[in-house]
Amino acid sequence: MSTQIFILVAITVAVASLVQGSTGMGFALIVAPVVGLFEPQLLPVLLLVLMLPLNAYVVWRERHALDLRGAGWITIGRVAGTAGGFWVLVAVPPSGLSLLIGISTILAALVSLIIPSFKAGRGALLAVGTITGITETATGIGGPPLVLAYQHRPAAVLRSTVAFCFLVGEVMSLALLAATGNVHFEQFQMALFLLPALAVGAVASAAIHHRLGGKRMRTIVLTFALVSGVAVLFQG
């Protein structure tokens, strides 16, 4: 990765960390298309590793609002989804990864923008967990289904619960990918280099997260994701 591309990715990571720390989503939707354009072989491991400390921080910061019951049902669904996501990752050749990321990003953004509100019950949460397991293990993108389930809950509940579900799911996905030989040193090395940028965004989010209800920022993030996904699709 050239210096110019690294700087671009680092800035993207900082912005994405700020957005996710403030609204509860957006990190993977922002970072995956950019990394997919230049270094698709770093995905999804780079995203999963970077999101571990970010989501751990958000869970700790807003632990008082965590919906453990809902997170439990999502996690149960996630177990099945993780295996499905690994199958997708193995079945798609490296040359098709950019296409998969682009399509996943576009569909996730469109669904999150146009689906009407609903109250998530046990069945919906299980389904959300399954879908998230598939998409996040295969591409690193899993936020939109979770945000759909909690989009009409208080912002603190959304941020903390989504972050907790991400945290548990990321550990599961990384464990499966590592056990099957799909985790490599350069992916962890790049994540380590990008940690300062991640920290800058996370710290900045602490100053503004209580001022945001989430709706406006989610629209901005998903619009950006839609444009980025189209760019990656054409690149692929």
Please describe what this structure looks like.
The chain has helices spanning 3-23, 27-38, 45-61, 68-91, 97-114, 122-139, 143-150, 155-179, 185-208, 215-235. It has 10 helices and no strands. The chain has one domain (3-235). Helices cover 80% and strands 0% of the residues. The model has no long low-confidence stretch (mean pLDDT 83). The longest helix is centred in the C-terminal third of the chain and has 25 residues, at 155-179. It is globular, with a radius of gyration of 16 Å. It has 236 residues and is an all-alpha fold.
* Main β sheet profile: none
- Strand residue content: under 5%
Overall structural class, as computed from helix and strand content, comes to: mainly alpha
Question: What general outline do the C-alpha atoms trace?
Answer: globular
Mean pLDDT: 83
Helix content: over 70%
Q: How many distinct domains?
A: 1
Distance between the termini: 18 Å
Please give the number of β-strands: 0
Instruction: Provide the low-confidence segments as ranges.
Output: none
Please trace the helix and strand order, writing H or E for each element: HHHHHHHHHH
Return Rg in Å: 16 Å
The number of helices is: 10
